[in-house]
Amino acid sequence: MSRFDVVITRRAERDIARLDNEVRTRIHRALLELTEDPLRHARRLSSTDLGQYRVRVGDWRVIFDLERSDVVVLRIGHRREIYRRG
After folding, report:
1. Which of 64, 66, 81, 84 is the most buried (most CB within 10 A)?
2. Is 86 a member of any domain?
3. What is the C-alpha to C-alpha distance for residues 5 and 20, in angstroms, rounded to an integer?
4. Residue 20 falls within a domain, yes or no?
5. Residue 85: inside a domain, yes or no?
6. Which among 84, 25, 76 is positioned nearest to 55, based on CA atoms?
7. Residue 14, Cβ neighbours under 10 Å: how many?
8. Are 77 and 16 in contact (CB under 8 A)?
């Protein structure tokens, strides 16, 4: 199986910087899993305004796109807020 590279956008970097250390560690583990098989636990988003896919990490969501062998992480946020527009 081919290995994927995780590319984190500036916006996602800012999202990560706002997280506490425990959540940041859990997100980091989820991102490592995305390098092996990005679609294993992913769900396709019905609206692609934010991105194509999401992965659930407890109450947190990682929104990403697939571009060839890259997993492009677009946003990371709490489930209560990540899908809101504005």
Report:
1. 64
2. no
3. 24
4. yes
5. no
6. 76
7. 11
8. no
8 A C-beta contact, residue 72 and residue 10: no
Residue where the block lists tokens 């807020």: 81
Of 20, 21, 40, 43, the residue nearest 32 (C-alpha): 40
Q: What is the pTM of this model?
A: 0.91
Residues whose CB is less than 8 angstroms from the CB of residue 43 and which lie 6 or more positions away in sequence, other chains included: 53, 54, 55, 56
The number of distinct structural domains making up the chain is 1
Structure-block tokens of residue 52:
């194509």
Specify the CATH number for the domain of residue 48.
Answer: 3.30.2310.20
Kind and range of the H or E run holding 77: strand 70-78
State the residue range of the domain holding 20: 5-78
Which pLDDT tens digit goes with each residue over 23-73? 999 999 999 999 999 999 999 999 888 899 999 999 999 999 999 999 999
